[in-house]
Amino acid sequence: MRKSLISQTLIILVGVIFFFPFLGAVHLFDWDEINFAEAAREMLITKEYLQVQIDFLPFWEKPPLFIWLQALSMKIFGVNEFAARFPNALAGIATLSVLYHIGTSLKNDRQGWIWVLLYLGSWLPHFYFKTAIIDPIFNLFIFLAFYQIYLSSLKSSKTLHYWLTGLFLGAAVLTKGPVAILIAVLCLAVYIVWNKGLWGIGIKGILWISLSTIIFSGSWFFIDILNNGWWFTETFIEYQIRLFSTEDAGHRGPFFYHFIVLIIGCFPASIFIWKRRSDIIPHSDQDRFTAWMWILLIVTLLLFSIVKTKIVHYSSLCYFPITYLAAKNLSQLNHISTRTNKIYRILLLSIGGLWSIILIALPILGNNLDRLIPLIDDPFAVANLDGAPNFSYALILIGLANASALIYTFIKAKQHPLKTFGAFSILNAVIIGVTMIIYTPKIEAISQRAAIEYFQSFEGKNVYVEPIGYKSYAHLFYAKRPNNHSELYKEKGLEYLLGEEVDRPVYFITKNIYLDRILTENPQLKVVSERNGYVFLHKLTPKE
Q1: Of 98, 192, 149, 141, whose CA–CA distance to 289 is shortest?
Q2: Cα distance between residue 460 and residue 481, in whole Å
Q3: What pTM does this model have?
Q4: Which residue from 402, 314, 390 is spatially nearest to 358, judged by alpha carbons?
Q5: Rounded CA gap, 258 and 262, in Å?
Q6: 509 with 467: CB under 8 angstroms?
Q7: What does the buried/exposed string (b/e) look like for 96-107 if buried means 16 or more CB atoms within 10 Å of the residue's CB?
Q8: Could you say which DSSP state residue 280 is in?
Q9: How many C-beta atoms lie closer than 10 Å to residue 46's C-beta?
Q10: Which three-class secondary structure state does DSSP give residue 133?
Q11: How is the chain split into domains, by residue range?
């Protein structure tokens, strides 16, 4: 007990060190980060906590749980980037603590720590705890639901675990929507096929879980329907269905997109999933949990490979089974063959070498943009590079440090695999943290800072500022748009802003690639200035 308490305290301290520094140092990124933060800001202004709003109009794309957490954070820390990202930083600490507890209870303290270090030391799992998107909290709820299902198969008193499964599954629905139910149902179907029946759960268990899920997730829908009628719930469900059947422009990708993302993005954990059949320890107490993790991994990966819209974080639920399977295999390194160890080392050098090349190349490319620009066939991207900050060649040291660690690990892991791979995970976590602190502001400066600073210049002014030709939420959050729209604006939107009878001055922003078309269609617009590919316009009044 004392050892576990010390370990949990240390994990919390590690989480604070890695997830909280510089949390609010960079503007929120369009779309997702700003989208959710704006919904939370508007929730505080309107005191409307049932229905999510964007631009003070109903927004049915997401349920409210994550927005509630952000709104609470903003109530404490103010409306800013730190507050928007704070819930996920807390989720990061909670996740690491949960992984240690489960890993230890499944086998021993060593497996618990290996799981923590692999999650912390893998690129994408680490990265998302420093963002303001929904997925880290959604994924944690789904994972906890699967853990409760596993526990129910071990306990004689199962009802509590069925209810907790439904509680976490319901919380996942309230965080991201019915996709949580879809994942659970698909995983259950695979489990039935794999298990040749419902052994360990039973029809009674399914009914208890379903009832619990309906109670916890349906409470929001029920209260909203009582207060506002069916229209919001119907539109919400219709959108969720459309999300899986249509393809967002700019978010296309091949079927194998997420396979590549997970192999590279979950490095180094991704290299330890593979294991020779002869190295598998039979009759392990973890067998059923391992089966659930394989099911969760395969179902999630295939589901979002089929979905037409391809976005990196769509497959982020896979981080849990990937890091678990890796931790399980690593904790058994003393039992595996020399051949398996060699394969791990080769994969470490191969995929890790790719990361080293990227980290070495970034400062070199940053200092030679003039040579890179002729290769880019996109006027907007070229203009974005005008906002690139200085890239010191000293940043090559990060890539060289990563390469040195890889070579050292490759050599030493032959004799001391567990300690060496564990030490590499810690070092990789440090490299990830440093890389994010250094490069995230540079990426933000290139991609969107000109637009963000333009929006900020309108804060507190009684004007409309609106993107035209492209979609954004940044103008709402960074101009701090007040809730004082005219009824005509609510009804007609952009058409009203482009018309003659507007109740306040109107300013627009677009991208240089859309400018000619926009000016041709709207001669009442005048270019004011341009910066880094963004063009700022003002609508002329009849007198002008």
Answers
A1: 149
A2: 8
A3: 0.92
A4: 402
A5: 6
A6: yes
A7: bbbbbbbbbebb
A8: P
A9: 12
A10: coil
A11: 2-336, 343-447, 452-539
What token pair was written down for 38? Answer: 């704006």
For residue 137, CA distances in Å to 87, 88, 146, 335, 503 come to 8, 7, 15, 35, 41
Q: Give the list of residues 6+ apart from residue 528 with CB closer than 8 angstroms, or none.
A: 507, 536, 537, 538
Residue 272 C-alpha from the chain's centroid: 23
> How far is Cα 151 from Cα 157, in angstroms, rounded to an integer?
10
Handedness of CA 284, 323, 90, 144 (dihedral sign): negative
Q: Which helix (H) or strand (E) holds 454?
A: helix 449-456
Residues 6+ apart with CB under 8 A from 429: 18, 117, 120, 121, 126
DSSP state of 510: E
The rounded distance, in Å, linking the Cα atoms of 104 and 107 is: 5
β-strand pairing of 57-58 with 464-467: unpaired
8-state DSSP, 286: T
How many Cβ atoms from other residues are within 10 Å of residue 16's Cβ?
14
- Give the pLDDT confidence of 290-314 residue by residue, as tens digits: 989 999 999 999 998 988 777 888 9
Please tell me the predicted confidence (pLDDT) of residue 95: 98
Q: Report phi then psi at 278, rounded to 5.
A: -70, -15
In this predicted model, what pLDDT tens digit does every residue of 479-534 receive, in sequence order?
A: 999 888 777 887 788 888 888 778 788 999 999 999 999 999 998 899 999 999 99
Determine the Cα–Cα distance for residues 388 and 467; give it in Å rounded to an integer: 22
For residue 379, the number of C-alpha atoms closer than 13 Å in the C-beta half-sphere is: 10
DSSP state of 526: E
Nearest Cα neighbor of 128 from 139, 142, 112 is: 139
